Amino acid sequence: MKRVLIKLREACISVLPVAAIVIILSFTPLVEFDGTEIATFAVAAVFLVLGIALFNLGADLAMTPMGEHVGSGLTKSKKIAVLLIVCFLMGVLITVAEPDLSVLASQVENVINDTLLIVTVGAGVGLFLLLAVLKIILRKDLSAILMFFYMVLFALCALLIESGKNDFLAMCFDSGGVTTGPITVPFIMALGVGIATTIGGKNSNENSFGLVALCSIGPILAVIVLSMTANGTVTPDKIIPTYTVASELDAFGSVLLATCKEVIIALALIAVFFTVLQLTVLKLPKAKIIQIAIGIAYTFAGLVIFLTAVKVGFMPIGLKLGKLMAENEWVLVVFGLVLGMVVVLAEPAIHVLNKQVEEVTGGGITKKEMLVALCIGVGLAIALSMVRIICGFSVLYYLIPGYLLSMGLSFFVPKLYTAIAFDSGGVASGPLTSGFILPLAIGACSVIAPNGVLELAFGVVAMVAMIPLITIQALGFKAVMSAKARNRIIMKRILAADDEQIINFAWSNDYAE
After folding, report:
1. Alpha-carbon distance values, 139 to 144, 202, 205 (Å)
2. Which of 250, 138, 269, 241 lies closest to 196 in space, CA to CA?
C-alpha cells in the first residue's frame, strides 16, 4: 500500500501542472469550454493520475524485471541466436502493445490502414532491437551506428519527397517517437542493463544505454517505405478528427471495452511469450513469477484507466484547445512553450529513465538535472512546432540541422552522455504527447492551414523526440568544460607555487606522518 501511495503522489505532481494550466485558461477570454467539458477534463485528470500510478507500479514489478531476466538469462545461456530471435519477437510484441502507437494510428487510419501501420512499426522496432543487442554483444560504438542509420534515413526521405509523398514525412518521424512509450521503455532499458551487466567490461554502463535510441530509428525507416506505397489523395476530411467530449462520453462504454480489448491482447502476447521463456530457459523462482504476474495486473489496470482518460477527456480537449488558441497565433507559440515544459512531467516513462540514469551514472547525472533539461527541451520543441504550423514549412528544416548538431556534439562529450541523450529523446515523446499535444497541433492547424494538417500538424512528436538529444548532450558538454576549467585552475596554482611553498608543503606532510 505504501508503494501505491508513493506512486500516486508522483503521478499527482506530474499531472496537476497540465490540468491546472488548462483549467485556468478556461476562465480567460482566450478559450471557452462549457461545464461538461471542464468537468470531464477534471475527472479525466484524476483518472490519469490513478492510471499513471498503477502503471508505474506495474512497470517496477513486471516490465523492468522481465527485461532484466530475459537479457541476463539468455546471455548467460550463451545461446546468442536464441537471444537475437527472442529480442526480435519481443520487440514486435511489445510495440504492438504500445498505447502511444495505437493513439497515433487511430489519428491517421483514414490515410494508412491502422493495423498495417502498427505491424510495420513493430517489425521496425524488432529488427533494430536485434541490432541494438548485437551492438552490446560486439561492443560497437553507438555514435557511429546512429550516424550511419540517420544518413540512410535522410536518403530515404529524399526518395519519399521525389515520389511526391512528402505529406507523409512528418507522420513517419512521429512513428519513431511514439514507439518508445510506457510499455516499451522499461522493458528495453532493463533488457540492455541485463545484457550489458552479464557481459561486463569497463564500458558496461555505457553499453546498457542506446537501445531506445536505435529502436526509434527502425519504425521511421519502415513507415517511410510503407508511405511510398500509399494510394489516394490526402484531404482535410480524411485527417482532421471530429471527436468531441460529448461524442466520446456518448460512446464511453464502447471506448472502455475497446481499450480493455487492446490492452488484454497486447499484454497477453507478452505474458505468453515470457511464460514460454520461463519454462524453457529462465526458470525463475515462484516468488519472482508471482511478483511479475501482480505487476502485469497493475500494468493492465493502469493502461486501461490511462488510455480511457486520454481518449475521453484529453484528446477532445486538446483538439478544441488548439482550434481556439489558433485565433491568436503568437499566444499559441507561448502556450506551446509553457505546456511543453510541464507536459513532459506527466510522461510515465520519463521517471523510469531518470531513475535508471541516476543509478547507472552513480549520481553523476541527477534526476533533477535530467528533468529540468527535458522540460526545457520539450517546451522549445512544441513552441517551434507551433511556429512551423503558422509559417508552413517542412519538419525537415528543423530535423536535419537538429540531428546534425546532436551528432556533432557526440564527438565532444563522453559516450555515456550521447547514449543517454538519444534514449531521452525517445522517452520524452510518450502517451500524453500523442494523446494531448498532437490533437492540440491538429486543432491549431485545422484553423491555420486546413489543407496541410498531415504535413504540418504531425511532426510535433518527432520534435519532442529530437530536442532532448541536444539539451542532454549540452549538459554533458557543460560538465566536460567545467571539469577542464577546474583542472586548468589547479595546474595554474601548482605551477604558480614557488619552490619554498612546495618544500614547506612536502616537509609538513612528512612531519605529520
Report:
1. 12, 11, 12
2. 138
Cell readout for 512 is 605529520
Indicate the DSSP class of residue 379: H
Closest residue by Cα to residue 336 from 354, 348, 350, 318: 318
Enter the C-alpha cell of residue 5.
501511495
Per residue in 297-321, pLDDT tens? 998 999 899 889 988 999 899 999 9
- What DSSP letter does each residue of 383-394 carry, written as one string? HHHHHHHHHT--
Comparing CA positions, the residue from 105, 10, 94, 1 lying closest to residue 51 is 10
User: Are the C-beta atoms of residues 377 and 467 closer than 8 Å to each other?
Assistant: yes
Residues comprising the chain, all counted: 513
Answer yes or no: are the C-beta atoms of 84 and 130 closer than 8 Å.
Answer: yes
Q: How far apart are CA 471 and CA 251, in angstroms?
A: 42
Determine the Cα–Cα distance for residues 238 and 446; give it in Å rounded to an integer.
12
Query: pLDDT (tens digit, 9 = 90+) per residue, 69-109?
Result: 888 888 887 778 888 888 898 888 888 877 778 777 877 77
Alpha helix positions (H), 413-498: 415-428, 431-432, 438-448, 460-496
CA distance 322 to 332: 8
What pTM, to 2 d.p., does this model score? 0.83
Q: How far is CA 328 from CA 332, 389, 460, in A?
A: 6, 13, 19
Tally of CB atoms within 10 A around 251:
14
Q: Radius of gyration of the chain from Cα atoms?
A: 24
Q: Residue 273: count other Cβ atoms within 10 Å of its Cβ.
A: 18
CA distance 270 to 56: 17
Could you tell me which of 60, 63, 49, 73 has the C-alpha nearest to residue 98? 63
- The owner of cell 512528418 is 170
Report the C-alpha gap between 408 and 405 in whole angstroms: 5
d(CA 367, CA 271): 31
| Average pLDDT for the chain | 83
Residue whose C-alpha is closest to residue 375's, from 424, 415, 334, 342: 342
Provide the grid cell at 289: 513469477
pLDDT value of position 50: 92
Distances (CA, A) of 120 to 113, 125, 227, 438: 11, 9, 11, 21
**Number of Cβ within a 10 Å radius of residue 211:** 37
